[in-house]
């Protein structure tokens, strides 16, 4: 297996909200009043966060509908599919992915990932003439095992450790149409990413071609030496030997070609397996998944941020904030996370929960609940994501 590509940090928090709440409640000595009021505090945070995503959900759905390959509605005169609108949609999807804690695979990282696929014995090339754009984003990276058939264990196979993306998002538009396709997959091995890309064409590597040509030439070199000796003994014997040599060369070439075809068959089988068993959502369903993830991630970040800052007087800057949150997640759940302190800090700021932001002190839980409840009742944050996306653009 080739070396793993260099990939971005993992901001995703692989812990359920309920699990976070239970852990905080079980540590009253550490979290004090936060632990005692965690259920009410979480509910207040949840109402505020859900309200923020609701208005954005409506806008996202309406903007994507004209470009949805699976839409059932008729075309409308006010649905122009020009490049400006397509680029705007692409930026909006990128915003959703970022807020859901996905990281984009840049061109160099994508090339490294595709290079890893050569372990299947093929070179993979995405045909640029057939794709207007292709964006890949990933979230979460871990390891699992896979049974691989080897020459030592051709039937039962042997267990090998492989790296996987817990989530892989694919956004692309074919060059000959205006529709934009969205795909979301789970637990995809790094070496299988190429099998899920649109118009990714397997090609013979130079090694494959060398096997086909070189196999015959290698055999021909050995045969030529013997043929010289045979020619001395008579033309009839030489003729028979030539036929045997030709059959040997053809056989070697066919063997190499069949090996290449087998590799293509394995790749096709892997693609079918991923599309059938590991496809999470498509098109509009991907947007629903992302919006739900945004709500979960924003809620977890804000709740962890509030609990950690409220219980640790040593936090006085962003570095110590992120370090404290990451240390607690590691201690409590055994997970390593690159905690998005900037996002958590921004959430606490817009929800007006700082007693003194410069001193890194927060209002007490009961007052926090009251502020969050007021924010929800007055719909103060209803347009947060709409405005945030527009400001970024």
Summarize the structure.
The chain is α+β, with helices and mostly antiparallel strands and 393 residues long. 55% of the residues lie in helices and 16% in strands.
Fold topology:
Layout lengths: L16 H9 L2 H4 L1 H4 L1 H27 L18 H17 L3 E2 L2 H10 L6 E4 L4 E18 L9 E17 L6 E9 L10 E4 L2 H27 L2 H43 L1 E4 L1 H28 L6 H16 L7 H10 L3 E3 L4 E2 L2 H13 L6 H9 L1
Antiparallel strand pairs: 1-3, 2-6, 3-4, 4-5, 5-7, 8-9
Describe the structure.
With 393 residues, this protein is of the alpha+beta class. It has three domains: 17-45 and 286-392, no CATH class; 69-203, no CATH class; 206-258. It has 13 helices and nine strands. The strands form three sheets. A five-stranded antiparallel beta sheet has the order 1-3-4-5-7. A two-stranded antiparallel ribbon has the order 2-6. Strands 8-9 form a two-stranded antiparallel ribbon. Strand 8 and strand 9 form a beta hairpin. The longest helix has 43 residues, at 235-277.
Shape: globular
Name the poorly predicted regions.
none
Into which percentage range does the β-strand content fall? 15-25%
Q: In which range does the helix fraction lie? A: 55-70%
Order of helices and strands: HHHHHEHEEEEEHHEHHHEEHH
Main sheet summary: 5 strands, antiparallel
> How many β-strand stretches?
9
Name a few traits of the molecule:
393 residues, alpha+beta, 5-stranded antiparallel sheet, globular
């Amino acid at each position: 297996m080739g070396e793993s590509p260099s990939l971005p940090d993992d901001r995703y928090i692989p812990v359920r909200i309920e699990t976070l709440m239970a852990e905080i409640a079980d540590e009253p000595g550490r979290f004090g009043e936060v632990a005692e009021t965690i259920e009410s505090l979480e509910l207040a945070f949840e109402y505020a966060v859900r309200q923020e995503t609701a208005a954005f959900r409506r806008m996202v759905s309406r903007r994507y509908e004209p470009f949805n390959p699976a839409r059932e509605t008729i075309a409308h005169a006010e649905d122009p599919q020009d490049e400006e609108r397509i680029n705007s949609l692409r930026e909006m999807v990128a915003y959703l992915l970022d807020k859901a804690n996905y990281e984009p695979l840049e061109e160099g990282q994508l090339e490294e990932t595709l290079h890893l696929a050569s372990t299947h014995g093929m070179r993979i090339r995405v045909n640029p003439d057939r794709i207007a754009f292709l964006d890949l984003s990933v979230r979460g990276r871990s390891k699992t095992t896979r049974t691989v058939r080897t020459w030592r264990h051709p039937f039962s196979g042997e267990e090998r450790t492989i790296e996987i993306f817990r989530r892989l998002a694919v956004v692309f538009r074919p060059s000959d149409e205006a529709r934009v396709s969205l795909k979301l997959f789970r637990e995809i091995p790094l070496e299988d990413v190429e099998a899920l890309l649109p118009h990714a064409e397997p090609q013979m590597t130079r090694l494959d071609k060398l096997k086909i040509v070189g196999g015959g030439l290698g055999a021909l070199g050995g045969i030529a030496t013997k043929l010289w000796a045979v020619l001395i003994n008579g033309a009839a014997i030489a003729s028979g030997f030539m036929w045997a040599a030709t059959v040997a060369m053809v056989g070697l070439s066919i063997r190499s070609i069949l090996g290449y075809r087998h590799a293509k068959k394995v790749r096709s089988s892997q693609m079918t397996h991923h599309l059938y068993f590991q496809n999470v959502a498509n098109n509009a369903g991907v947007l629903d998944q992302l919006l739900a993830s945004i709500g979960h991630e924003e809620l977890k970040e804000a709740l962890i941020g509030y609990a950690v800052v409220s219980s640790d007087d040593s936090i006085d800057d962003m570095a110590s904030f992120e370090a404290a949150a990451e240390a607690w997640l590691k201690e409590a759940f055994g997970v390593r996370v690159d905690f998005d302190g900037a996002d958590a800090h921004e959430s606490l700021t817009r929800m007006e929960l700082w007693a003194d932001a410069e001193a890194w002190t927060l209002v007490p839980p009961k007052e926090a609940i009251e502020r969050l409840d007021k924010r929800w009742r007055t719909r103060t944050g209803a347009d947060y994501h709409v405005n945030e996306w527009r400001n970024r653009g």
